[in-house]
Records
---
Amino acid sequence: AQRVTQPEKLLSVFKGAPVELKCNYSYSGSPELFWYVQYSRQRLQLLLRHISRESIKGFTADLNKGETSFHLKKPFAQEEDSAMYYCALNTGNQFYFGTGTSLTVIP
Amino acid sequence: DVKVTQSSRYLVKRTGEKVFLECVQDMDHENMFWYRQDPGLGLRLIYFSYDVKMKEKGDIPEGYSVSREKKERFSLILESASTNQTSMYLCASSLERVPYYEQYFGPGTRLTVT
């Protein structure tokens, strides 16, 4: 069963526009959620985790347990944000990754 | 700074060959993971290990095996490579079996099986 769903495979926004990458999860326990990012020709790396409640590179993500969502948001997209983004759920035993969203920021 | 290294960035093998992918981490992490990354499918867990000589199957273990003889090294083995195993393989490690610890990834090995 798919535990992490990212409904958008591709997302294009113009520079300066707001961006939201959607992530929904399925887990009955207390979720630990992450966003990972992979820039072109670089390794996959952590962007942010929900437990930290921090903003990284202008991105934020709020855990909504009622909607079982962990959407990634940025108010003003930059060209350097173009990358592949993965939402991930850690259940304590295993990590589950979504299928990823490829974000393109158009100059 | 955690470093996860993989033995090859690119590998081309023939169908039926035995293939070894090596991963080494230098931060004394207990947990190590092997994923394959395919467009539209995201990352899928093949095997993981929480300790030396321990291994657990992930979501797609068929056609693969693993070996962890030392804490820092986790090997993925394709006993008889097939074309449907052409993929990007990512190794990762994390500190402990604790939910909020992140995974650190290697640069990946792009394997092509012809």
---
Amino acid sequence: AQSVTQLGSHVSVSEGALVLLRCNYSSSVPPYLFWYVQYPNQGLQLLLKYTTGATLVKGINGFEAEFKKSETSFHLTKPSAHMSDAAEYFCAVGETSGSRLTFGEGTQLTVNP
Amino acid sequence: DVKVTQSSRYLVKRTGEKVFLECVQDMDHENMFWYRQDPGLGLRLIYFSYDVKMKEKGDIPEGYSVSREKKERFSLILESASTNQTSMYLCASSSLSSGAMYEQYFGPGTRLTVT
């Protein structure tokens, strides 16, 4: 089975600062990788995904992530944090068989004024 | 827009009660999933279904069952609710088409409290 590790359950940044949320995965085959965001009292919303092709993936709200096979990483970045980015972020990897996703434990992002 | 709806946003039940959580999707997706979300544990898969009347156990199926009689509807059943089942329950759906496989769409969640 795949596994996903998100480093840091809580990340705090100042408004306008770089956002970096870390995700490492284990997979025996080329993975499908996802980042989801969850705003308070809502379900999860897809931010971006990597399937094949370009390793730098752009998503909604100015976020992007880079697939690095050699590091088994898929870190999420945004150049300049906004107050509205405060939310919980989940990294996920697709299982090798079937349509399941395995999720990381989540990272709560706080943006300080 | 894909829409996944869940029957209740908040639910309070007593220990021992039978609880039904309903989920409906409107995009003709083959796959449907039930997760529970707890602080520090992320999302854990309870059950999933890839077709009508088909179901597969996820990582934490104990104490739960599911029903899928129609393609658009997937129900989670707590046969005898216990306090350790107090949690946020999330439903999701996805298509089997190769371009969209794995991409799951989520409902708003049901926060269940068992007292």
---
Amino acid sequence: EPEVTQTPSHQVTQMGQEVILRCVPISNHLYFYWYRQILGQKVEFLVSFYNNEISEKSEIFDDQFSVERPDGSNFTLKIRSTKLEDSAMYFCASSGTSVAGELFFGEGSRLTVL
Amino acid sequence: RKEVEQDPGPFNVPEGATVAFNCTYSNSASQSFFWYRQDCRKEPKLLMSVYSSGNEDGRFTAQLNRASQYISLLIRDSKLSDSATYLCVVLTSGSARQLTFGSGTQLTVLP
């Protein structure tokens, strides 16, 4: 069964450092997303990406964050100058064209900022 | 009022029991509705979409009441493997591609 894969599964970084989280969406999917979940809290939308550009972003997704799809398969989330409050599980998701809302999530990348 | 609101639980039920979860949403223009399940420290996984006429998938039944802005999930003959957090998810924004997740209802099925 096709799946969304994410790396790394866990990253520990010092405050102020930059991190890049990587995702390989399901190959024939066209819509890509990043969500985050702070421990014990709900899943929060960060950004959606379609046709090589951001289609929508939340208020969380400020200038500290960026996304790109550099090579047609990987989909990356870059977090610049990490803060303690960026510690969370970051989920990548993708969807096909069938039904908006039927997302396939990766297993997540846990980011710990010290 | 929260965009998507759920009773956090926890619901502790014996194996074989029937359990129901409720969810309310605030935006009357919401377009689509889903139930996801999330196991502890794992990713959300789509359980089922919720259709206006209600729909059933095996032991799971989902209902939508647009007038009351209310969604429900019924689990019959619960199994130990049903233990998880159940997330009510609503497509709320003008864009067709942004989902809003509820905080989830925790279910533990006891042997």
---
Amino acid sequence: NAGVTQTPKFRVLKTGQSMTLLCAQDMNHEYMYWYRQDPGMGLRLIHYSVGEGTTAKGEVPDGYNVSRLKKQNFLLGLESAAPSQTSVYFCASSYSPGGFDEQYFGPGTRLTVT
Amino acid sequence: QQQVKQSPQSLIVQKGGISIINCAYENTAFDYFPWYQQFPGKGPALLIAIRPDVSEKKEGRFTISFNKSAKQFSLHIMDSQPGDSATYFCAARKGGGNKLTFGTGTQLKVEL
């Protein structure tokens, strides 16, 4: 199993450009999450999904959109990138609702917005 | 608003020593408290976790101590090794969605 994979690994954008980050998991997990990690701020939840076709806002959703058209994929979109969105983005997944389930993280995408 | 406060921000420990990282929370609705370990260039990975109905959980050299009345929990790493050098995040889960609120992280360096 590959676990959680993220594409791309690195990206540089100019202010105002758009891009989509792809997360894929092969563990048949129901729940998926997008976080951003910034120095001194830990990991902050952007959006999450509790199943195919569903999405919900997390702690810092502004400027981002997500889609979960297939159970195994969770896409994060930036419609008009801003320098404040320079960060490392992590995707995670977990198995099921209700239990104390481990979140499995991908390797991250380092995004720089100039 | 930082719902989970973590300290210290960085920590240097000698090989064989004890590393202690502390976290405090405010929201009594949190029901699960995991610790994640992150090596440079990698995603976080679950290290150990505790439910609030127990006061301590030990797995090998890693122990979580949990004080429900004080709303505090801590990670103890016994016999710290250079391979333990990483960033450690405490977290807390609140019910539906299995959503985690993370602390700000502690960068641990274990020196020879």
